[in-house]
Design a protein that fits this description.
With 590 residues, the protein is α+β, with helices and mostly antiparallel strands. The protein has three domains: 159 residues, Alpha Horseshoe (Serine Threonine Protein Phosphatase 5, Tetratricopeptide repeat); 233 residues, no CATH class; 158 residues, Protein Transport Mog1p, Chain A (3-Layer(aba) Sandwich). It has 22 helices and 14 strands. The chain is elongated, with a radius of gyration of 32 Å. The relative contact order is 0.07.
Length: 590
């Protein structure tokens, strides 16, 4: 009876307490229990009983709603000991967001990243740490930790990149080598001459040998070819490395050339071509299944696949380019070259063909823009351990000197014969399109053609050719763009496939009115597809109506997209240029 009376009295006393006082009492009780759990957790940590410590620290967190940083730090540290780095990172980040100068949180984040083998992120956090105002001893210790994280990043970069993973790849190494051989044979049949001067080829082969030695999974039985073409480019296919004379002429330093070649080797290491071919094959299989289905929704999806998914394809390509940049940085670095040379080469590309998001270069949209790549690679290079620069190579200087002594190459987009002036024409005038002309050739193909003598040609970063009127004239507003796609790169792609991709791209324009794809043939009997569209382009002054017509033509071994676009008010006036270029295109030379 006494116990019952005592219980009733206790309940009555609690009821008599005001609500605010009850809340305070509950908070005080939780705080006391949290403190007790924290003290127990400390005892367990001294004993190395990390699971028991985790339980007590987590209880302390819950009792205080994670508002006591000391409890959060204790739990995070315990998670690091238990190798639950992700749980630890969440707690360190929570404190860091509230207090960006909290050194314990910054150090904890770095430790969590290292435990997760995210070494690039660990380097970034340690870089942030050493930039903080620190006492000399802590500064020195932070620098040592930063150097250690950099070494881990340099040595184990493949953990993050996983070049063998990512998109599926159904091709065997033997199939990839066979494809590479086929492409090399087609390139040889196109008539592009080779440079055989040993001072040039020997230097390029030696550099490739050094790079490949540090490129895991690259075929060891590869061949190097130096092409006598002024195209500023280099490329690899399985088993082959192709270096164009134009890139040798454009590079200013040995590091720039090493960066470009290492980037191309990175594509092969990650097997990007084989993965691309796998995706094409899988898309085709999926399309055939959907087309055979009785489901209305499946037929709808099949129609979408027929049109293509340009946005998805562009995203995939950007990812490939960015990964090849990162792999190239490591390959160049491991081979002893300054990886920032790749940044220098991008700046050269930018000065040759400035890229922007308002650019009309059709295929430039399938690659990262140069300024983005400059920033990304610059930041990435800064994560590697610094080292003294290499001494200038006498072999590089000898290669450049010998290159300057060679006879001029047939420029990829240049004169093959002098233009003959036509009386009565003025630069940029429509009459000049059928007056003075000059010839151009397309490297890597037996295609030639003509452009007006007062128009200029430039090669875009993506490899397409844009013809424009002279800058400062009315004709400069108009463009004719030529893109050549070797069939060997995408053997499953048909003329209709490519036309539908172009059509889908145009439909993505603002206020676009796009006509249906029209089947036709050229005067020489080649199968062709025509797509026309009207759309608006945003400029600082407002919206400008544009018009475009694209013709996709089937050539032996190649598919060609010839596009003409510009302000609608000038479209008819300069259409003669488009007709001139289209009529003059020849396969196999003149």
């Amino acid at each position: 009876m006494r116990a019952v009376i005592t219980t009733i009295a206790l309940v009555a006393a609690l009821v008599a307490v005001a609500p605010g006082e009850a809340q305070t009492t509950r908070q005080q009780r939780d705080a006391a229990e949290a403190a007790a759990s924290y003290e127990k957790g400390l005892v367990f940590t001294q004993q190395g009983a990390w699971k028991e410590a985790e339980k007590e620290f987590r209880n302390a967190e819950r009792k205080t709603n994670d508002k006591v940083d000391e409890y959060v730090f204790a739990t995070a540290y315990t998670y690091l000991k238990l190798h639950k780095a992700n749980d630890a990172l969440k707690r360190y980040e929570r404190i860091y967001k509230r207090e960006p100068t909290n050194l314990r949180a910054i150090v904890g984040m770095a430790a969590a990243y290292e435990d997760m083998q995210r070494y690039a992120d660990a380097v970034r956090i340690w870089q942030r740490y050493v930039r903080m105002p620190l006492p000399p001893a802590e500064k020195a210790e932070g620098e040592a930790m930063l150097n250690g994280a950099r070494q881990l990043f340099a040595e184990y970069y493949e953990i993050a990149e996983n070049p063998a993973g990512g998109a599926p790849n159904l091709a065997t190494p033997e199939q990839e080598l066979a494809w590479g051989l086929g492409y090399a044979q087609q390139l040889a049949a196109s008539g592009v001459p080779l440079i055989t001067d040993p001072a040039i080829t020997g230097y390029v082969e030696d550099m490739c040998r050094r790079l490949v030695a540090h490129a895991k999974r690259f075929p060891t039985n590869y061949e190097v070819f130096v092409l006598d073409s002024m195209t500023v480019n280099a490329m690899t296919t399985p088993g082959f490395i192709f270096v164009y004379r134009g890139i040798l002429d454009a590079v200013r330093t040995e590091e720039e050339l090493a960066g470009v070649l290492a980037h191309e080797v990175g594509h092969s290491v990650a097997r990007h071509v084989a993965k691309m071919q796998t995706k094409i094959a899988q898309d085709q299989q999926q399309l055939e299944k959907l087309q055979q289905s009785d489901s209305k929704f499946s037929r709808f999806l099949a129609k979408m696949l027929e049109v293509g998914n340009p946005l998805g394809a562009l995203t995939f390509s950007r990812e490939n380019e960015a990964q090849a940049d990162r792999l190239g940085v490591h390959i160049a670095y491991d081979a002893g070259y300054d990886p920032s040379g790749l940044v220098g080469m991008f700046r050269t590309f930018e000065s040759m063909s400035p890229s922007s998001r308002s650019s009309w270069d059709l295929m430039t949209r399938t690659h990262p823009f140069s300024i983005d790549r400059v920033n990304a690679v610059t930041e990435y290079v800064a994560l590697l351990p610094p080292r003294p620069p290499r001494a200038p190579s006498p072999a590089f200087a000898a290669m450049k000197a010998r290159l300057a002594e060679l006879p001029p190459a047939n420029d990829a987009v240049g004169l093959m014969r002098p233009a003959v002036p036509t009386p009565g024409t003025t630069p940029g005038s429509p009459a000049s399109t059928r007056g003075a002309t000059r010839d151009f050739s397309i490297d890597g193909t037996p295609l030639t053609g003509e452009i007006p003598a007062d128009w200029v040609a430039r090669k875009t970063e993506a490899g397409t050719i844009v013809f424009e009127g002279t800058q400062g004239t009315e004709a400069y507003e108009m463009s004719v763009e030529l893109e050549v796609q070797p069939k060997a790169l995408a053997p499953a792609r048909t003329l209709d496939d490519l036309a539908q991709v172009v059509q889908a791209h145009l439909r993505g324009r603002q206020d676009a009115e796009v006509q249906d794809v029209r089947a036709t043939q050229t005067d020489r009997g080649q199968a062709a597809r025509v797509v026309a569209a009207n759309f608006n382009v945003a400029v600082p002054q407002g919206l400008v109506p544009f018009a475009q017509i694209s013709v996709v033509i089937d050539y032996p071994g190649h598919l060609i997209i010839l596009s003409y676009y510009g302000p609608a008010t000038l479209f008819e006036k300069y259409s003669g240029v488009f007709e001139l270029i289209g009529d003059s295109l020849r396969y196999g030379g003149r």
